[in-house]
Recover the amino acids of this structure.
């Protein structure tokens, strides 16, 4: 078949394009604002895509059009699809029917940690010789790709709670036929599509309800909502958490005596109160210990060996844009992370300090997601960013969407951080941010850039300027 993907450069869409290509289909697409790593992925696969939307992109006529969830009515290419009566569907439905049905699906859901946990499970299964297929919302460094199709019965997929398409406003994860399901945590997010925390919670309640009684549900035990949602599971529940999580009863899988270092993290693993042994992972931060526990539990449920799990944890190379070290110039390290929810921002700052301890953490944050730009989350960002030694706050990505009652006020947030004793400033322009950061950075500092977008190529600009300063 000839599949045409409108919105092909989204992380999930580009990964789907790769899977379809691996299955032998012809794949084309279109999008705007295409940037790495997805543009690199598409180019490497030789997939043709247009850099703008146009009815001309539909010639010759495809057999099926896949409409990305970011595409809305009024898009001229979508309107042409409807006017020409071309068959169309969503990415989630295509994934279910083309790749998931009949397999042992390991679906990873949750507000935070989905991409890392999904990638780690895929690698633990791979290290156990299970040759899994996978679909991940990011590029898994061990595989050098975001998707793979094999003949294995196991398919590991990131189960996103974002909506499916303009014609299907339910979350994508409802389509993924989970046999082993993971819910890392649940905390209100995506205020653009969920009217309130209750609606958000319901999305996970229904996801949990999809797991058969002979399957397994792995749940992060440190968030109350996740614990409550798991109570209605028909499948056996395996809880995961640290021994410092104030929950009762204690998690079934537990990390004790956690030790953080520049090389990663070590911990004692206990299962149902009984010691299993000491494990090491390349990941940093308490949130990644919880992600690791979820990955271990899900992998064991799928039949992974302890030998494979141990080997996989020590050789895991994480995911691009998740605590990814982009380079070091003149003793200053530049790190890229996708963090945008307040909880993720706080955890990422904490992890950067644990991993690169010794210098300051300079947090450069772009409020780009809908959640990040909402007024009601401003106080949470104040608490999250306060863990950095210095904060540079960029301007809102789409300020025209908000007024003073609904949008974050970056200037006000910076004033609040300063009142808390944090060295903070608001700079809207990317080049001006680079100038300010480079002028103030010292050897040993970590510049932690957090954004779920391209951020104007800020990472390379920082490295270029830092390198020029070091060589002058």
């Amino acid at each position: 078949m000839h599949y045409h993907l409108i919105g092909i450069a989204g992380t999930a869409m580009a990964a789907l394009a790769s899977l379809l290509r691996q299955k032998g289909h012809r794949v084309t697409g279109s999008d705007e604002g295409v940037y790495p790593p997805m543009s690199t992925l598409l180019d490497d696969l030789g997939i043709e895509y247009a850099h703008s939307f146009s009815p001309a992109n539909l010639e010759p006529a495809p057999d099926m059009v896949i409409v990305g969830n970011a595409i809305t009515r009024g898009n001229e290419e979508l309107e042409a699809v409807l006017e020409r009566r071309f068959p169309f569907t969503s990415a989630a439905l295509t994934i279910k029917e083309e790749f998931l049905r009949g397999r042992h699906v390991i679906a990873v859901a949750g507000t935070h940690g989905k991409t890392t946990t999904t990638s780690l499970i895929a690698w633990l299964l791979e290290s156990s010789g299970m040759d899994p297929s996978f679909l991940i919302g990011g590029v898994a460094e061990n595989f050098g790709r975001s998707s793979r199709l094999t003949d294995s019965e196991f398919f590991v997929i990131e189960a996103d709670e974002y909506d499916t398409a303009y014609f299907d406003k339910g979350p994508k994860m409802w389509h993924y036929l989970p046999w082993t399901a993971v819910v890392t945590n649940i905390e209100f997010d995506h205020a653009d599509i969920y009217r309130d925390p209750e609606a958000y919670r319901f999305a996970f309640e229904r996801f949990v309800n999809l797991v058969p009684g002979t399957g397994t549900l792995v749940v992060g035990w440190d968030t109350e909502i996740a614990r409550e949602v798991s109570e209605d599971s028909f499948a056996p529940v395996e809880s995961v958490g640290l021994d410092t999580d104030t929950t009762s009863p204690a998690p079934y899988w537990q990390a004790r005596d956690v030790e953080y270092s520049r090389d990663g993290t070590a911990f004692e693993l206990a299962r149902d109160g009984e010691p299993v042994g000491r494990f090491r992972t390349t990941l940093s931060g308490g949130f990644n210990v919880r992600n690791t526990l979820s990955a271990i539990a899900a992998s064991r449920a799928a039949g992974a060996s302890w030998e494979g799990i141990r080997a996989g944890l020590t050789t895991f190379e994480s995911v691009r844009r998740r605590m990814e070290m982009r380079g070091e110039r003149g003793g200053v390290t530049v790190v890229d992370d996708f963090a945008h929810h307040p909880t993720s921002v706080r955890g990422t700052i904490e992890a950067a300090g644990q991993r690169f301890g010794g210098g300051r953490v300079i947090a450069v944050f772009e409020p780009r997601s809908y959640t990040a730009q909402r007024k009601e989350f401003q106080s949470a960002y104040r608490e999250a960013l306060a863990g950095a030694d210095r904060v540079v706050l960029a301007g809102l990505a789409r300020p025209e969407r908000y007024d003073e009652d609904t949008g974050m006020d970056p200037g006000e947030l910076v004033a609040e951080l300063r009142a808390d004793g944090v060295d903070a400033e608001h700079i809207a322009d990317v080049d001006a941010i680079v100038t300010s950061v480079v002028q103030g950075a010292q050897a040993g500092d970590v510049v932690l850039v957090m954004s779920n977008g391209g951020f104007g190529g800020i990472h390379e600009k920082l490295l270029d300027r830092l390198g020029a300063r070091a060589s002058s």
In short: Residues 286-302 form the longest helix (17 residues). The chain has three domains: 2-91, 102-315, 324-471.
